[in-house]
Amino acid sequence: MTLPNATLLFAAAALAGTMNSVAGGGSFISFPALIFTGVPPIPANATSTVALWPGTVASVGAYRKRFPKDSRILLEMIVTSVTGGTLGALVLLRTPQTTFMRFVPYLFLLATLLLIFGKRIADWVETTFKASKQPRWLVVLASNFFQFLIAFYGGFFGAGIGIMMLALLTMLRMEDIHAMNALKTLLNAAINGAAVVTFIAAGAVLWPQALVMLVGAVLGGYGGAYFAQKIEPQIVRRFVIGVGICMSAYFFVRH
User: Fold this and answer.
1) pLDDT tens per residue across span 96-140
2) Pick from 71, 22, 15, 30: which is nearest to 159 by CA?
3) Tens digits of per-residue pLDDT, 214-236?
């Protein structure tokens, strides 16, 4: 790894950490940066996940007092998240590099569309399930099923899962946005944690790049948490969407 590449990866990770602390979408920056420096797509995805994961774990601590009191549902969704995240990561590791690279532009586009329309989706889910009279057990079963799909996608690629989970949690009729964000952050950490363990065990992580980016992401996350109180989140969200559109277009052209 050359000094210019290390500098680029550090800066990209710092920006990704900042984005994750304010609006999400950090992998829109970290994954392409690794690709630009010559890292193959699957090790790039694995390395990006490892580099950004500690920032997610740190966020869990900040929300520790906001977790739902129903420990049974909490445990069920954590187990579902770990299972889905592990399977998604295993499928990624068994996917040929060229095949995964063909998926990349569509995955970026999907994540970008989720950022654009995520609130409308969450509002629709909330309206639908508040109006429905489905039994509680059926709602919980459906929630775990959809959480498994989200976790599988998260282990395979990961961008945009926060928006998916916020929409999903409305199925459980959660109304406290802080509790929803707390559970979303915990499940996100569980999904990516399972993927991190799988990637490390498989030897898919490029450690020189991962360590440089990890430091940048932690510093960016800390700075982002500070400046998030001074910056209008909507501005950052628009920036993330703009990056997502640009990255989608870039990988479609490259494809």
Assistant:
1) 999 998 988 888 888 888 777 766 766 776 676 665 666 566 666
2) 30
3) 999 888 877 665 665 566 667 76
Please tell me the distance from the alpha carbon of residue 137 to that of residue 194, in angstroms, as a whole number. Answer: 27
Spatial contact of 204 and 4, defined as CB atoms under 8 Å apart: no
- Using alpha carbons, list the distances in angstroms from residue 123 to 126, 134, 151, 169, 250: 5, 18, 21, 11, 31
Kindly report the backbone phi and psi dihedral angles of residue 211, in degrees, each rounded to the nearest multiple of 5, phi listed first: -70, -40
Residue 69 has which token pair?
């009191």
Helices assigned H by DSSP within the chain: 3-22, 27-36, 41-62, 71-93, 97-131, 136-156, 161-169, 177-201, 207-227, 233-254
Q: What is the pTM of this model?
A: 0.83
| Structure tokens given for 100 | 């995964």
d(CA 131, CA 141): 18
Instruction: Return the amino acid letter for 153.
Output: Y
